[in-house]
Amino acid sequence: xxxxxxxTGYVGLVSGACFSExxxxxxxxxxxxxxxxxxxxxxxxxxxxxxxxxxxxxxEAGRLHFTTDLRDCLHxxxxxxxxxxxPPDEDGSAxxxxxxxxxxxxxxxxxxxxxxxxxxxxxxxxxxxxxxVIAAELERRGESVEFDVASxxxxxxxxxxxxxxxxxDRVVVGTDSERARKIMARLYKPFMLSGERMIFTDIPSAEMxxxxxxxxxxxxxxxxxxxxxxxxxxxxxxxxxxxxIGADTRxxxxxxxxxxxxxxxxxxxxxxxxxxxxxxxxxxMQVLEAVEAVNERQKSILFxxxxxHFEGALQGKLVAMWxxxxxxxxxxxxxxxxxxxxxxxxxAGCRVRVYDPIAMGECRRRVGDSxxxxxxxxxxxxxxxxxxxxxxxxxFRIPSWTTLSRLMRNRVVVDGRNIYDRHELTSxxxxxxxxxx
Length: 437
Prior knowledge:
The chain has 437 residues and is an alpha/beta fold. The chain contains 17 helices and 14 strands.
C-alpha cells in the first residue's frame, strides 16, 4: 500500500515514519526544500525520542521517501494525508490556507480514485470546504475523477509520539464513504492487532473530537491551577486535594497536576480556535474563555512568588531557570511559560541564566542573547539569588541540595511543578515556594 503525507512537521514526520515501520510505502512531502534535503541526508528537524532511528531505518529500507512536490507521487498512492500547519490567525481562528493549498494541488492532479485525509487539527466544516476546492479544480479541468475526503485527527503527545502512534488508545476516522472506510481500516489494521480501537464517525464529529479532547484536558489543567492558587490562600495542600478528587473514578487522576501553565503547539491554539468556531456559529464557549484566561495568568505565578519573596526588589538579582520547553522530552517552546517568565524577569531588571537539556538552541532562536546560556544545571545556579524550576525534566528531579546550598548566593527555590519535598529543602535552610502547597 502506498500513501503520501503532506507536511513534515511534528505530526507528518512521526506519522510517516510509523506507517513505514509497518511496511507501508510512504512519501513525505514538504515545500521547504532545505528541510527535505536535510531529511534525505538523515537529519531530523525536530526532537522526538526514537524518531531519528525510525526515519533512518525506514529510509534505508526504501519504505520512506521525501520530496518537495506532491505531484511526484499522486499518480501512485491510494491515500494522501494533509498534515500541514493550521496556525492561529490574528482573531484566534485556524488559518486554513495551507490545508486548502493541499486540496487545490490534489484536485489539479489526481487521475484515479484517491482519498484526501485531513490529519491537521481543523475546525468543523473544513472537510466541506476541502471538497469544494477539489470539485472546483476537477470542474476547471473538465474531468470527472472519483475521490473522497476524510478526517483522521491525531492524538500524539510530544515526547511519547511514537508509542502513541504505534499503540494508540483510539484511532478516529470521520468519513461518509464506505469505500474510504474500508481503505482506512486496512491502512490502520497493523496497529490494531492487540485489539480493535478504531472509531468511525461522520466527518463533522471527527473534526470536533480533536478540539473537544484538547479543550477538556486544558480545562482540567486550568481548573487545578485555580484550585491550587486557592489552596495557597486557605492553607490547604493541593497534592492532598488532587489525590482525594482523583480517587473518584468519575474524575480520574490524569491532568490534575497544578503548575505554571500549559503551552505547546496544541492546547493554546486549539482552545482559541474552538472559542472562535463557537463565535462564528453564534455560540459562546464561556468555560474555555475562563480556561484561557486562567492559563495566561498562571504563566506569571513563578514571577509573582519570586517578587513577593524579595518584596518587589528584583533589580540586579541573578535568577537561574531550569527548563525552557513547555514539557519534558521535547524542544518545543511554543507558548511555553518560560517565555513569559523570561520577559517578566528581564523587565524587572534581573539577570537570567537558563539551562535545558534539549531546548537551548530553540531558546536562543526566540530570545537571542538576552539571557545567559549554561552548560549544565549547576552552572546555571552558581551565585544565583533564586532558582526557578519551570520544566520537570528527569535530571532536575533529585538535585544535590548540598551542592546548591554551596553554589547559590541566596537559597531560594520556586518550584513550578511541585516536584520537590518542602521538608528536605527547609531542613537545609532553603526558602521553598511551590504551587498550592
